[in-house]
Design a protein that fits this description.
Elements (H helix, E strand, L loop, with lengths): L1 H10 L1 H28 L4 H24 L7 H32 L6 E4 L2 E4 H25 L9
Antiparallel strand pairs: 1-2
Helix pairs in contact: 2-3, 2-5, 3-4, 4-5
């Protein structure tokens, strides 16, 4: 039984790590978004989202590099290539997220929804942010797996 679990874990280790660190990155993203949504005001949700994005992308780069895709090289050409690809892909997903937030909050009026859970204010902005996080996590995995941290042969690393 334990041997079977080990085999399954090893087979899906990358995906398990991606989900684990993706959940942490999502917590960083939603938490920082909520903080800046309160500080700046709900009407500046796009600015709050960009600040949240910067914090989250820095966190996600290091966790993806070190633990998810295990890119061990710190050679400048490898790091620069990864950083450009990682931030480029994340800029694309930021555009998707900003568009999704704008559509849901400004056009579909999700921003008017709100309720409290254990003294925590859940507004429409936060609901839209959580919905978009699901889309973004999937997009980011595809970019990271197939492009940014794609396994190279030993000579390139």
């Amino acid at each position: 039984m334990i041997e079977t679990i080990k085999k399954l874990f090893n087979k899906y280790k990358e995906l398990i790590n991606y989900v684990f660190f993706g959940v942490l990155a999502t917590i960083v993203s939603i938490g920082s978004f909520k903080i800046f949504d309160v500080i700046l005001g709900e009407h500046l949700y796009m600015i709050s989202n960009v600040i949240s994005w910067i914090i989250t992308v820095i966190f996600a780069y290091f966790t993806n590099k070190l633990w998810v895709f295990q890119s061990k090289s710190w050679k400048p050409n490898v790091v620069v290539r990864e950083l450009i690809g990682f931030f480029g892909a994340r800029l694309f997903s930021l555009g998707v997220e900003e568009l999704g937030l704008w559509l849901m909050i400004d056009k579909m009026n999700i921003g008017t929804i709100g309720f409290e859970i254990l003294d925590f204010d859940v507004n429409g902005n936060l609901i839209a942010k959580v919905i978009m996080q699901v889309v973004i996590v999937i997009l980011n995995y595809i970019f990271s797996k197939l492009i940014i941290f794609k396994k190279k042969d030993k000579k390139e690393q």
